[in-house]
Amino acid sequence: MCAKLTPAQRLVLYYMAFEALHGRPWLTFEDIREGTGLSARSLRSALVRLREEGYIVSIIDPIKGKRQLHRVLLYKLYPAPELEGLYLVDVSNELTPEAIKVLANADVVLYTDSVDVKRLEGYAKELRPFRGEVPNAKLVAVAFNPLLDMDKLSDVMAKAKYICASNAVDKALGSCISCGIVDLDYGTFRIKAVSNDQELAELAKSYDLKGTIALQTCDGKRYELVVLKRRQGASGSRA
């Protein structure tokens, strides 16, 4: 990947990708020059080559006429031609590399009302609001928040390949749950009795037990995450 590029061209490409992944998909010439430390001449040459190779696109800034804005095409850096179907992508927290690959390669990225669309602009080829229907395309991603959107996704859950979990869940479990063969069920919520468990019983004095999230990882392990909400005015340790 990028084997034909010079070190300066790779520096520009990776800097633009880093900024896109952190919410800045469109960069000016000065943004890139300051970020890379390249001379104006070297940067102009690098941008021309990257456009020719299809790694970036450049447009005229609609606000400042003659100035150009440059954007990296992340699917060129994260090619995944084997992906197809419908993927549900949890964007409520930091994204895994697998989730980024799905978003970057999707023909269409749909997003629910709870999702900040600006966060997706650096990844997606095409963005549309999710209104309950899935377009006919090779690869479609639905970006959602699992704590807010499960009722909106009930009609498409059965059609989805899998759900890319956020890194926050990965770290909590200490196990990979976004390798592509994961059965992740955010839709199973159950209220559990706590009378036979003293620790949970004590915890329940300060928190309302909202339900559980059932998880099965790629190594076959099964977990249940307990969802708690602190009661208003309750004291005690943080969960």
Q: Which structural class best describes the helix and strand composition?
A: alpha/beta
N-to-C terminal Cα separation, in Å? 44 Å
Overall form: elongated
Low-pLDDT windows of residues: 170-195
| Overall pLDDT confidence | 76
Helix content: 25-40%
Could you state the order of secondary-structure elements as H and E?
A: HEHHEEHEHEEEEHEHEE
Q: How many β-strands, per DSSP?
A: 11
User: What is the makeup of the main sheet?
Assistant: 5 strands, parallel
Q: How many domains make up the coordinates?
A: 2
**What percent strand?**
15-25%
SSE layout and pairing:
Elements: H1 7-21, E1 27-28, H2 29-36, H3 40-52, E2 56-60, E3 68-72, H4 74-77, E4 85-90, H5 97-105, E5 108-111, E6 127-129, E7 139-144, E8 160-164, H6 167-173, E9 183-185, H7 198-203, E10 207-216, E11 222-230
Parallel strand pairs: 4-7, 4-8, 5-6, 5-7
Antiparallel strand pairs: 1-3, 2-3, 9-10, 10-11
Structural commentary:
With 239 residues, the protein is of the alpha/beta class. It has two domains: 7-76, Winged helix-like DNA-binding domain superfamily/Winged helix DNA-binding domain (Arc Repressor Mutant, subunit A, Orthogonal Bundle); 85-230, no CATH class. It is 26% helix and 24% strand. It is built from seven helices and eleven strands. It has helices at residues 7-21, 29-36, 40-52, 74-77, 97-105, 167-173, 198-203; strands at residues 27-28, 56-60, 68-72, 85-90, 108-111, 127-129, 139-144, 160-164, 183-185, 207-216, 222-230. The strands form three sheets. The chain has a five-stranded parallel β-sheet with strand order 6-5-7-4-8, with helices on one face. It is elongated and about 70 Å long. 27% of the residues are buried. The model is unreliable at 170-195 (pLDDT under 50).
